[in-house]
Specification:
Layout (H helix, E strand, L loop, with lengths): L2 H4 L4 H13 L1 H12 L5 H14 L1 H8 L4 H9 L6 H8 L1 H25 L5 E6 L5 H10 L5 E7 L2 H13 L6 E5 L11 E6 L8 H12 L2 E12 L1 H6 L1 H11 L8 H10 L2 E8 L5 E8 L2
Parallel strand pairs: 1-2, 1-4, 2-3, 4-5
Antiparallel strand pairs: 5-7, 6-7
The chain binds S-adenosylmethionine (SAM).
The site of S-adenosylmethionine has 19 residues, from helix 6 and strand 2.
Length: about 290
């Protein structure tokens, strides 16, 4: 019995192994050994690392800037002719779940906007660590001519914001979205937010740091404002340990996977009243929701 048969690998992983076996057996051997926690030589690891970078734009972009929205944008949009390794990331459950998170947010956000709109004239959303802000741009696009719902995308990455500006202009909603290049932890808003989004930011952070972030974000919210913050769940590591291993190995993506009760505790300790959560369709990301306790 081969190693691949003993461990139950996903269909996407087996497909990757099949292609690697034809192209470079050493890379496949490295991945299997690494996953099993077996020793590998430095030479083999360096060979595999270089192979991944040279054969995958997703790897190259993520290694160059591990926290960048470049990775999430590739997973949202896909690639016209992905290499086998890129195809693996696009097909793996953990990769698909990132896109599913976007879908879930775009499904829930309008309900929250409508809740505020039923009680007040205008709604202002702060998208913290927005990347280009695709979630906001797709959502506000549906609002068309409704000028009372606006958003501010805040990110320290200028290139991501420029990308967002192009996306917003392409959807004819650039008058509804402002782009601010800043560390959101230092942001002093001209007007405080009704809704703050914090998506794909807390995942690598220990709970104590998440609490610090959420306490700072309180200062960005109106007294009845709410926060939606995503975290990677423990289901992600249980259901797709192979992709988690690759991301850790290639880009030091050591996510602090959290159960719903841990996310709720973070909200509570940061001074938010828990109003519930929703997940992506894989259950790999938990979006906690809370209202600021004044
Ligand atoms: C993984 S991306 C997620 C982007 C987007 N929220 C999404 O869900 O597609 C994380 C983004 O957070 C930004 N970021 C992280 N910490 C930040 C901070 N303190 N201030 C501003 N931007 C930050 C990074 O520059 C990056 O664009």
């Amino acid at each position: 019995m081969t190693v691949e048969e003993k461990i139950v690998f996903s269909e996407a992983t087996l497909k990757l192994f099949e292609i690697l076996a034809e192209e470079d057996e050493r890379v496949k051997d490295f991945l299997v050994k690494r996953f099993q926690g077996l020793p590998v030589s430095y030479t083999l690891e360096e060979w595999a690392y270089n192979y991944f970078i040279a054969h995958s734009v997703i790897t190259a972009a993520t290694v160059a800037n591990p926290g960048s929205s470049m990775t999430t944008e590739f997973l949202y949009e896909g690639l016209s002719s992905p290499s086998p390794i890129d195809n693996y990331f696009l097909q793996a459950k953990a990769g698909q779940a990132v896109k599913a998170r976007l879908v879930a947010i775009e499904g829930e956000l309008p309900k929250i906007i409508e809740h505020y709109r039923s009680n007040q004239k205008s709604v202002l959303i702060g998208n913290l660590g927005s990347g280009p802000g695709r979630d906001i741009i797709n959502t506000l696009h549906h609002y068309g001519d409704i000028l009372s719902v606006k958003a501010v995308n805040i990110d320290k990455d200028k290139k991501a914001l420029e990308r967002g500006e192009r996306m917003a202009a392409g959807r004819n909603i650039n008058h509804l979205v402002e782009f601010v290049q800043e560390d959101f932890l230092k942001h002093k808003p001209a007007e405080k937010f009704d809704i703050a989004l914090l998506i794909g930011v807390l995942c690598p952070l220990e709970p104590e740091i998440c609490i610090k972030y959420l306490k700072i974000i309180r200062h960005l919210l109106k007294p009845n404002g709410c926060l939606i913050a995503s975290n990677a769940s423990k289901k992600m590591i249980r259901d797709d340990p192979f992709t988690c291993m690759i991301m850790d190995w290639m880009a030091n993506w050591r996510l602090i996977h959290k159960e719903e009760n841990e996310v709720r505790q973070i909200f509570k300790e940061a001074g938010y009243e828990w109003s519930g959560s929703f997940t992506d369709s894989y259950g790999f990301h938990i979006m906690g929701m809370g209202k600021m306790i004044p």
